[in-house]
Amino acid sequence: NKRIRVSSNQTIFHLQKKELYDELKNKYKAFEVVFKAEDEVVSEKIRNNIQRMFPERYGWILHQFLTLQQVLNCRSTGILSIDSDTILLRPMAFVNMNHVQILMESLEYNAEYYSFLNKINPLYPLSPQSHVTHYSFFQPDLMNEIMRKSSIFSLEDFLIHIENFADLHSTSSICIDREFYAIGLQIYYPEY
């Protein structure tokens, strides 16, 4: 398997960590790590709506919107998203020898995710597989196409679907980044 060249490293910070953000941005300038505050990635309007809809789970839902927006903004063929509490301890292949993406699976199954996804796109099955790992490889062009095929053209469209179809009283009713992408890839682009 040929190695994928890393073209940039980006880290996103919570706005309340502004001092740390500024300090790290200056300290690691030479390492070509791009530090961004969350307001540079997701608009205030979206953040306010997330806060209103999910006051108890704001961070988890915002994390998904940040991941999605980073994928949509990416101009590379692929983007690896790694949670801040995760370190990859061994080499991993995210694309096989035939250039087909390897979807990571986990045991963190939550039926509410699939119920929500099925409501916004009836082709999404009530899946028994979970792809909620703490790291995920995305192909931005395919994410854009999966969104388009689901009649979702922006993060604002996701917000409308969340408000209309998600259980806003649940502690964890949606997964619009990893599960949406993985299942969409299986449905629309199994050859990738």
Q: Total number of helical segments?
A: 7
Mean pLDDT: 87
Query: Which class best fits the helix and strand makeup?
Result: mainly alpha
Largest sheet: 2 strands, parallel
Low-pLDDT runs: none
- Global shape: globular
Report what the structure shows.
By secondary structure, the chain is mostly helical. Helices cover 41% and strands 9% of the residues. Helix 1 (18-27) links the parallel strand 1 and strand 2 (33-37). Helix 2 packs parallel to helix 6 (155-165) and helix 5 packs across helix 7 (178-188). The longest helix is centred in the middle third of the chain and has 16 residues, at 58-73. The protein is globular, with a radius of gyration of 17 Å.
Looking at this protein, list some descriptive labels:
mainly alpha; 192 residues; two-stranded antiparallel ribbon
Give the topology, please.
Blueprint: E1 9-13, H1 18-27, E2 33-37, H2 44-53, H3 58-73, E3 79-82, H4 111-120, E4 135-138, H5 140-149, H6 155-165, H7 178-188
Parallel strand pairs: 1-2
Antiparallel strand pairs: 3-4
Helix pairs in contact: 2-6, 5-7
